[in-house]
Structure formats: structure tokens, C-alpha cells
Amino acid sequence: MVARTDEVTRADGSTYRRAGTGPALVLVHGYLGGAAQWQNEFERLSDSFDVIAPDLPGYGNAAAAGCIDRIEGFAHHLAGLVDELGIERFCLLGHSMGGMIAQEFAAQFSDRVEKLILYGTGPLGLMPDRFEPLDVSRRRLAEDGVACTIRRIGATWFRDGDAAPGFNLVASLGAQAKEPAAQAGLDAMSHWDGRAALARISMPSLVLWGDGDQSYRWPQVEALWRGLPDSKLAVIPGTAHAAHLEKSTLFQAVVRDFL
């Protein structure tokens, strides 16, 4: 039986979802994402884990909670959440920009992370070889608005583009964000470089990647995998940036096996 998922609004207006019992597993979404993107993980992992997924400020159901323009700021926001929940140690999974936040958190608070999963992400926020430079995304966001931007960018996250079954979820979730938060997220990524901190991220880590990812190409993924002191690599074939929605059963099997 699937555990009931509760959504909680915090005093600062940010929100999180929580379900299940067992060791704590925190899932951090990426740019223009939200807690709702982890619906399959709540269904299939909450039998073994206390699954917690925040809506980062400015995104998803926390769209009205202001915005953060630095990865370090997101990491401290995450620290405030787990402190509030009384969680000392936990497993941490971050996707895309959320993977940058997870790296930053793990570097600053290494004693609190039991195991780390860095999914569809890299150690450099500028994302060399991304499908388009961040400056282009910034300009087009100002011209087209958030709803058009997430449909355009989100289509690159799937091997089947906007025809993929998970595309509508991504598009509707991303459209909840306000333009200032969307711009702040691009600023946060463009100012972040986590390469020097990789050596401090000493807990067992899994680098998880879809082989058709157009946001984080292999050189970024390889640099992350080889730069971490204790890391494993898992590549999910036939997927892009949203492997957890494209091949969810395989994705969860890999995650569960590592944890």
C-alpha cells in the first residue's frame, strides 16, 4: 500500500511533501521543477524510506515564497528545512540544478549526508555544451515568459520531446514559477562552480545520468564521477534529462540498489 503523501507549508511560504517511514531520503528538484515531479518516487520508495521533497522557493507550490539567486542560498534553505524536521543524517538526491544544491550542501555539511545521488547534473553551473548557453535562456525567458520557456526547454529533457508521457507534468509544474524566480535560478547556476569542493564530498556517491541528456553532456558527468572520492556511475540508456519520468522503474531500481 502506498503511504499517504502530506504537503506542508512552512512559515516562510515554502512547501514540502513527505511520505513513508524509514531512513530519510530528501529529493531536490531542479530548475523550473517542483516536488510534484517525484510522484513515482513517492509511490515506489516510501515503503522503505521517509521520502521528503521540498518545493524550492519560487518554484512549484512555493512560487509565492520569494526567490533565491545563489546555489549556496538554496543549500542553506535546505539545511533550514532538515533542521526544522529534526533530521540529523539522511540520504540526499539532487536533480539538475538540484544536483548543484546537493553538491553544495554535501560540501558544507558532509557529516549530515549518509549517501549522495547526483542525477543529471555536473560540477559547473555554466554547463558547457548545454543545448543553449544560459545567457540565451535568460534572454528568451524575458522575451517569451515562463510558460513558453518551460515548454521549449522541457522538451529537451525527453528523448521524445513534447510527445513524451511526462512532458505535460514538467510543463505544468514549471509554469507555476514566476519570472523573477526563473531568472534568479539562471543567475544561481551561472555563478556557481563546485569543482574545487568535490574532494570534500567524501560520502558514498552515485552519479546517475541519462545517455541522451542535452543539458549535462558526458564531459560534465565524467568530471563529477572522477572528481568525487567515493563514487559510482550509473547510465540509464534511452533517456535524456528526465530519466526518472522516462524510465521510472529502472531509475528507482538503480536508486534503491545504491541506497
From TrEMBL:
Keyword S-adenosyl-L-methionine annotated: no
Keyword list, A-Z: Hydrolase
Entry superkingdom: Bacteria
Pfam families documented for this protein: Abhydrolase_1
UniProt key word Cell cycle: no
Gene3D superfamilies: alpha/beta hydrolase
Ranges for domain AB hydrolase-1: 23-247
Xref: PANTHER family: AB HYDROLASE SUPERFAMILY PROTEIN YCLE (PTHR43798:SF31), MONOACYLGLYCEROL LIPASE (PTHR43798)
Protein name: AB hydrolase-1 domain-containing protein
Organism, as annotated: Marivita lacus
